[in-house]
Write the structure tokens for this entry.
Amino acid sequence: MTLYDYMIIGCSHAGLAAADAVRAVDPAGGILLVDREDRLPYSPTILPYVLSGEVPPGNTRLRDENAFRKMRAVFRPGEEAVRVMAGAQRVELSSGEEIGYGKLLVATGARPVAPLIQGLQEVSYHVLRTMGDAARLREHMLAARKALILGAGLIGMHAAEIFSASGAHVTVVESMPQVLPGTFDPGAAALLEEVFEAHGVRLLKGRTALSVERKDGGLSLSLNTGEEIAADLLLVATGVRPRLDFLEGSGVRTDVGILVDERMRTSVPGIWAAGDAAQAPQLFGTEPAFSPTVTNAADQGRTAGLDMAGELDQVYGGAVIASTTSFFGHRAFSLGLGAAESGEEGLECLVQSGKDPLRYGRYVFQGNRLVGVVGISLDVDPGIFLELIRRGVELDQVKGAMGENPAETGRLLMARVWG
Amino acid sequence: MATSYPTIAFYPDQCDGCGKCVEACAKASEGDPSPEHSRIRVARDLRDNSYRITLCRQCAQPRCVSVCPGGALSKNTQTGVVEWDEERCVGCRLCTLACAYGGILWDPSREKVVKCDHCGGAPACVDACPRGALKLSGASEIYRRWGDLEDLFVPGISACLGCNSELLVRHTLRRVGPNTVVATPPGCIAGVGAVGVNGRTSTKTPVFHPLLTNTAAMLAGARRYYNRIGRDVTMLAFAGDGGTADVGFQSLSGAAERGEQMIYICVDNEGYMNTGVQRSGTTPYGAWTSTTPVGSKLRGKTRDAKPMPLLMVMHNCEYVATASTAFMEDYYDKLDKAVQASRRGMAYIHVFSPCPTGWRFPPSELINISRKAVETNFFPLWEFDLEANRLRFTHGVADPLPVDVFLSLIGKYRHLDEEQKSVIRRKTAERIRLLEKFADGERPDLSTLAA
């Protein structure tokens, strides 16, 4: 049986960040990365761009074999973990092979989950989480005339833009009263909705899908309002959840995701988790929560890797929303509690909005600290604001300047505080 | 093994916010000086009217790389630059969320992200800055070239805080290497335990403790024996100025004249520091020491120092050089040459070695003082090669800082009156004139001087 000092299951942002962090501290320890897909590692975030045709499926990877060789890590694609035997410190792979590990990181990500809709399993529908999904969806999209998307989250809305560009008629069904709920505040969401609607995308908000059936060569979705939507392509983009059955019997405590502390340690010594598979401490809020974003995944992976390699001073500051999206030539981002309502827990907001050209900035403060920002075509450095939010920097006099000259104010604070 | 890279350093005290760096960057990278293309930005701090910049830090563990979904960003481990591949970029701007420094920016007119790439090694912003607020620091080169060498001195030798000698001997032996016999006579270096303590050596090479009078003679003997048994081993002396210019001079002079094979390093802290800061033959004019005190009758040393390095040139040594630990690349280059020259005869290096305890300055000022000594021409950096019969400056002497800048940093010069300072200024200028006469083009063939 082969034994590795470090074994990492799952080779996307979290897994790779962890491997890099391990190698930065431990130049000699053996590192094995396995991934269930038989290809070079890639990010699910690239898939909308594969769908649009902008990125050829064969030409995207987070890392190539050369890079693994240079860092002296073994990468074994096409290997799925089916069982973790924590006591014996072994992982069983789908091939039957068992790998022994010194320390284990679970970074297996999450998979799409579909809402309970009567008849859904009898129709053909798409999800967008793997390269295979993207290839199938693209092929279907090029032939489709009427596209229907369930879920107006980041994936759903990006797909809506792409379907629209391909010439299809697009309908998005969302149970919440706005698009991108939780990510954008109602004000920003309203502006986004206007742009989508102006491009012919039909947004049906505040509605739930009850049942779906095959009809007239395509399908028909029935909503709780009684409306029926006909389509020849259905994309379900209502969210993801980690699939953790391979951890059964391991003793690793899970909730929605694998529960971890601020060092990404699970309840079992010697096992860490990071990324979309994990349920980690939050920057805002006392309970660990499921918060699947790329920035969280990368930071958690790094924290886990450092801790695994013995660099014990690092703790995770907490997961925080950091999302970016573009739509019809505009760009938007959301950081921290940018979407939170003012009045909640002493939050106050400063909003600046304009239509021609479209521009939106929403700064959320808690006392003297910035806790969230939402921007549409806002010329600022989002990463600097995210760091201000993470560090809870006391703004003092510059709080007022934030609205007037956000970019320069941000840069000055960066230079003064951590730059 | 870790490595290090050149880096763009910013000096806010020099910046007046002119923005020429921004223009130059935009022009160099996008052919258009419009600031939205620039990878470097300037922000003004109204509190104190100072300026700060935003620039990619070429992080060692770049966050932007870890979030890019297209694998478009990567750290080039040769140059240290975090590179951006336009082909792989999809414009998602996750990198701009991940970077806490504003180092990667969205250019709205080009509709892509832009970040500093050091312009391939010659950053346009650095060239454009008229006030020297931006510099490309190449100090990493030393680490890349020599970082893998082993420090052959053990930890735990008990030098004073800020001691130049400890810095010097560790670097020297790293470069000269393990195939060496080290000799260090009575003085600070032996005094801190460099020879050894309790029956164990402090070096991972053979080391011995000659008398203050005979370092060069003993090394000469050791070398002759190694030669006789067919082994090519480098002889290396770390001798203080007392053991070199005063009581050690006789044996040194004889060994040099005979062409004995060794590297002889004079660690010149301008006095007998180990025994209580007494004056030596290399103590400069005006300096306070415990035997040239400052009071009503005397105001420091009345005689000038012996010009040891020039005296060694006159001995027809294979190689002679002056060095300062504030110029490490220069020193390592000179060590390279010394090692080669020591195969043929004597290589003599005279190192300016400020002593915080004996000269009275804060330990944190050591390198600054070593640098100012060179930059004021008080201690010029030069080398002499016998084969080429050439003396040349290895650091420019054309535009020195006033020597008072150097003197004012050091406690042993605090008492100097205006007359003494003007003597020092004159002597400093004369020293350069004399060296210039020896330098390339003017130097006479020294062998003609022998009777």
Summary: The mean pLDDT of chain B is 94.
